[in-house]
Structure formats: structure tokens, C-alpha cells
Amino acid sequence: AVLIRLTGSRLSDLTGIRGIQLSEELWWGVRTYFLILPIFITLLIALVYMASVFSYEPPPHPLVEVLLEDEKLSLWTVFFSLFVACIVGPIVEETFFRGFFYPAVKKYLGASWTMVLTAAIFAGVHENIFSFLPIFFLGLVICYLYEKRSNLVACITLHIVHNSAFIAYFFLMKSVLLSGQ
User: Fold this and answer.
1) How far apart are CA 132 and CA 53, in angstroms?
2) Is 70 helix (H, G, I), strand (E, B) or coil?
3) CA-to-CA distance for 142 and 179, rounded, in angstroms?
4) What is the DSSP letter of 129?
5) Which helix (H) or strand (E) is 85 found in, with range?
6) What's the pTM?
7) Helices (DSSP H) in the chain: which residue ranges?
8) Whether residue 130 has pLDDT greater than 90
9) Dihedral-angle region of residue 172 (phi above 0 means left; psi in -120 to 50 means alpha; beta otherwise)
């Protein structure tokens, strides 16, 4: 920020995004997420069905384990966990996968194969074979969005909306289950 002020530049000069562009990119991320949500939910339903057919109980996500602890969690633990999962995680992951890895590999493999590779690695680092397919799908969509928008803001927005929606769903289900006891 100091360097920007010293050179007479604006933050928008560094990021390449102006105010009106920012709101447009945010909207692209939100809109794209809601467009793919039915497909994503269908994939999850199919996975749950397959798991029930094979009597498979997938391991819980580490964040779910933290938030399901019987003892009362401190407000700080809950806030920090949600901040990391909903804000920091998407920013870091999108910066690496779409901002760095995708453009670097695209030079050698082209867009299509790099989208598949990036989405596969993205799903793989989430270390849950059960959710590999939905996360792979999400990674493909985010790569496609990056390819079309040439901008990380829409990708980060979509990722933040996704993580926030699923954590909100988790808390909703937790309260429904606890109120039924």
C-alpha cells in the first residue's frame, strides 16, 4: 500500500480491477455457483445413495469433527474455524490452483487437460475419496470460470459461497438433529 501511494498509483492499478469490475466479478462467482448447484447436489445425492448401497460410512471432514465435539466450543474456536474454512481457504486455494498452477501448466498441456489435472489435484488435496467427484466437478467449474473471466475474484467468490453454503447447511442439520433429541 505504501509503494502504491509513493508511486501515485491506485490499488486497482496493481490488481487490474476497478470498482465496477469487482462487483461484476463477484456477481459472476455467485451466479455461476447457483447455476451449478443442482448438478452438485445431484452428485452428492448419488454418492449418498451409493454409500448406502455399499454400507459405507465416509469419514467426517476434520472441521465437522471439531464443530461436533460434545464439549462447548469457545466462540473464538468456532469463529476462527469458520474464517479459515470460508475465507482464508478459498483465497489460498484459488490463488494457488487457478492463479499459479493452472496458468503454469496450461502452457504445456493446453486448457482442457490442465482443467482436468488441476481439478483432480484440487479434489485430491481435500483427502476424502468419498467427496472426490463433487470436489472434482467444483474444480472443473472454477477452472472454466477462470478461463472465461481471466480473473480470480469470480473464482474466489464462487469458492467462498460454496464453503459458506455447506457450513451453513451443516449448522442447520446439526440444530435440526439436536432439536429432535
Assistant:
1) 18
2) coil
3) 36
4) G
5) none
6) 0.83
7) 2-7, 11-15, 19-53, 62-67, 75-83, 89-94, 102-124, 132-149, 152-179
8) no
9) alpha
